[in-house]
Amino acid sequence: MSNIxxxxxxxxxxxxxxxxxxxxxxxxxxxxxxxxxxxxxxRYWIAEHHNTPTxxxxxxxxxIKHTLEHTEHIRVGSGGIMLxxxxxxxxxxxxxxxxxxxxxxxxxxxxRAPGTDMVTASALRRAKSxxxxxxxEDVKALLTYFGPEEKQSYVKAFPGVGLHVPIYILGSxxxxxxxxxxxxxxxxxxxxxxxxYMADAIALYRKHFQPSEYLETPYVIIGANVIACETDExxxxxxxxxxxxxxxxxxxxxxxxSPPVEHMDEIWNYSEKNMVNSMTSVTFKGSKExxxxxxxxFQNQFNVDEIMAVTYMxxxxxxxxxxxxxxxxxxGH
Length: 333
Description:
Blueprint (H helix, E strand, L loop, with lengths): L7 E5 L9 H18 L3 E4 L13 H10 L5 E8 L5 H14 L4 E6 L6 H7 L10 H11 L21 E5 L3 H9 L3 E3 L8 H11 L11 E9 L3 H20 L18 H10 L3 E4 L1 H15 L3 E5 L5 H15 L3
Parallel strand pairs: 1-2, 1-9, 2-3, 3-4, 4-5, 5-6, 6-7, 7-8, 7-9
């Protein structure tokens, strides 16, 4: 496979950059959505995180609505709604309402993790009995709420019934892969931060896939970090912003997205470096030609159906240029 024709999309955690206020981060989120829409990206997903002062993506549905309002045709969705935190009926009503206002532009990505620490997860829960173990039933409930009138039970989502909002199963391990396959739903793997089980999850999803009313053949999206620049050297320097971001995760610190540095070895120790490199092993980085070859090699091995790019760069102009270079690569330019 020497050329790459594949849909590309963008995922945004809506990070606060150093020196920014939350409103700045939300404005930047919309600005990036408008930019990737012009570039021809397929979809733009927004994450869900709680009790994280450096991310503003806690009220995901509100951010999706805000983004839909300020874009024209790009699909906007959740990457994802973390179902243990929400009543499926409330999710159905919210997304049913958005799908009514913005028809054929909404995606609902669903995750089984809480998107936060366990103390915060407990504060978010509807009831003490709710947990990740109800995830398969919650997904099925949402499929029903968006399904036809004749499949409904007594409780219905208005608006929601008959809207068939597309549902995607998100995963960072193998468990959700099997569920997505058995339900015949598209599957999105979080290789941008948890790549360890990517190959296994993709294989299990394809093995267990059963054609459904939603999908005839398996559809795999993988999240990948992308740092595309004019030169390899520039990309190596810009990469340090992302490395600092993941070092935050490793340390549990709360530093906003920071400018690039010359030498990460002055910041992290050997163990931290290994942990960050492990978390970010699925990263396309370098000049256009370098990233093109990395993508060809990746697709020769995994042949996924869509790449969802995550680009942590401090300068918004460089972040947009990275998305632009990535789109040029898959378009063969």
